[in-house]
Amino acid sequence: MAGSGAFVELLEEDVYKYYFDGEWRKSASGKSVSIINPTTRKPQYKVQACTQEEVNKIMETSKVAQKAWAKTPLWKRAELLHRAAVLLKEHKNPIAECLVKEIAKPAKDAVTEVVRSGDLVSYCAEEGVRILGEGKFLVSDSFPGNDRNKLCLTSKIPLGIVLAIPPFNYPVNLAVSKIAPALIAGNSVVLKPPTQGAVAALHMVHCFHLAGFPKGLISCVTGKGSEIGDFLTMHPGVNCISFTGGDTGIAISKKAGMVPLQMELGGKDACIILEDADIDLAAANVVKGGFSYSGQRCTAVKVVLVMESVADALVEKVKAKVAKMTVGPPEENCDITPVVTESSANYIEGLVMDAKQKGATFCQEYKREGNLIWPLLLDHVRPDMRLAWEEPFGPVLPVIRITTVEEGIHHCNASNFGLQGCIFTRDINKAMMISDAMETGTVQINSAPARGPDHFPFQGLRDSGIGSQGITNSISMMTKVKSTVINLPTPSYTMG
Ligand code: G3P
To answer: Considering only CA atoms, which of 10, 5, 14 is closest in space to residue 43?
Structure first.
């Protein structure tokens, strides 16, 4: 079922088409994949189940399109990206409507995701023309024993085909954070959207289509992971993979060929709260960080490590805020909305039951209806509970009471993940020293973890990822340095 204002040209009967060679097409498979609305738990949309043969054709076409695109002037690439950004913002409502229906993102946040994506695309165009317009000039006599007879010119060249695989929680924003850097750098893009979120992604791709990018440069393939997942990530045509998601990323990194990888695979972001912290500020950030989009963010606060002396005060303040949260459908802009699938809800419930059985204190009653789980703060969580280490990706937040700062740092560093963390204290010296000791890609001082603004570097240690994102880092990652060396005659050569 198409939403009001949706792009009708993407639909045939009730199935959304995939995008290849500048056209919307039906798969030869004749099959489709259903997208279940997390709120109604009924089928909402259908997308094409593409075949491996179709993936092969996409790769061939992408390769040809990329060669021409690499020769397209940078300003022209930027101009098209700016146009796509405008179109994205113009169509923010129909795209947001898909996000509401496919991933139960609260309506207001869904619109924000699309607008943020437009901003990202524009910024990327601006940044690209600057950083890709510069190279280096090296002279050989700066190295021991060399004369000044070699001049080295470097520039950044594209990698080829970038395979972009975004996750369900930001199917638009985390798609454009891969697509825009790839395109400005002269690559072509093959997008494989997540099943939940695929229709929003197809609408986003249509904005790039309307912007007038050359045929074949951008493709969007939908289908079953079992049929085209490994086939795509192991495809010899792919020159770079940018993936955001869960454990699948670990499997991809083991199977992928010799191509650069950019991976962001989740986190168990710790929030360390010291005795001298502003407890009101900390409580507000624990709630925002732990429960926005029902905790379905890699950067969500996933464990609170609070000093025992201020733990009661913190827990009381967080409880009071949680009691005011609205729970219900995304269309009504509730704070807590259904989690993305029934299996996610079951997984979250498993973590909650494990904590219950092992003696955690429930600050609210555990309540679930279908995929909707009421926000839950669990106090006195101990390291033997799964919730202390595992990522619920839901509105469930464990509190571990600590007696020393070292205990908090140790817990944070013992995790398999190392994405972000945060510290609440009024002592900046302490904050800096703790930040230095925390083994995470980013540490936020006196605020909850967050990826944005989208030009900030974003990276994780250990199982949280490979490489660094953020607009500039992504552009660099999707290019390779090319050197041209001019060899002058030997120093004995005379010009006169
Ligand atoms: O969940 C992935 C991560 O990129 C979240 O981003 O903007 O909510 O901090 P953000």
So the answer is: 14
Paired strand residues for 306: 273, 401
Q: Where is 77: in which H helix or E strand?
A: helix 74-90
Contact 268, 188 (CB under 8 A): no
Cβ atoms of 220 and 201 within 8 Å: the answer is yes
Asked if residue 287 and residue 419 are part of one domain, the reply reads yes
396 shares a domain with 353: yes
- Sheet with 136-139, strands from edge to edge, namely 136-139, 150-158, 479-487
Residue given tokens 């991933």 in the structure block: 103
Q: Whole-model pTM?
A: 0.97
Q: Is residue 492 part of a domain?
A: no
3-state DSSP assignment of residue 247: coil
User: Do the domain assignments include residue 305?
Assistant: yes
Same domain, 19 and 134: yes
Determine if ligand 1 sits within 6 Å of the CB of residue 450: yes
Q: Is residue 22 part of a domain?
A: yes
Asked if residue 254 and residue 131 are part of one domain, the reply reads yes
Percentage of the chain exceeding pLDDT 70 = 99
- The DSSP-derived string for 6-70 is --GGGEETTEEPEEETTEEE--TT--EEEEE-TTT-SEEEEEE---HHHHHHHHHHHHHHHHHHH
| 264 is annotated as an active-site residue | yes
CA distance 34 to 21: 24
Encoding tokens for residue 387?
A: 């919730």
CATH of the domain at 408: 3.40.309.10
**Mutation probe of ligand 1 site: the residue of 99, 117, 168, 170 with most atoms within 8 A of C-beta:** 170
**Domain membership flag for residue 434:** yes
Mutate to test the pocket of ligand 1, among 109, 174, 291 (most ligand atoms within 8 A of CB): 174
Provide the 8-state DSSP code for 2.
Answer: P
* Ligand 1 close to Cβ of residue 451 (< 6 A): yes
The two tokens of residue 348 are: 């979250």
pLDDT in tens, 205-264: 999 999 999 999 999 999 999 999 999 999 999 999 999 999 899 999 999 999 999 999
204 & 115 share domain: yes
Q: Under a CB-based contact definition with an 8 Å cutoff, are residues 102 and 42 in contact? A: no
Reported as a single tens digit per residue, the pLDDT across 422-467 is: 999 999 999 999 999 999 999 999 999 999 999 999 999 999 999 9
Cα separation, 17 vs 344, whole angstroms: 28
Do 244 and 304 belong to one domain? no
Domain range holding 301?
A: 270-445
Q: What is the pLDDT of residues 253-295, one digit of tens each?
A: 999 999 999 999 999 999 999 999 999 999 999 999 999 999 9
Encoded tokens for 283: 């409580």
Question: Does one domain contain both 157 and 93?
Answer: yes
- From the CB of 169, is ligand 1 less than 6 Å away? yes
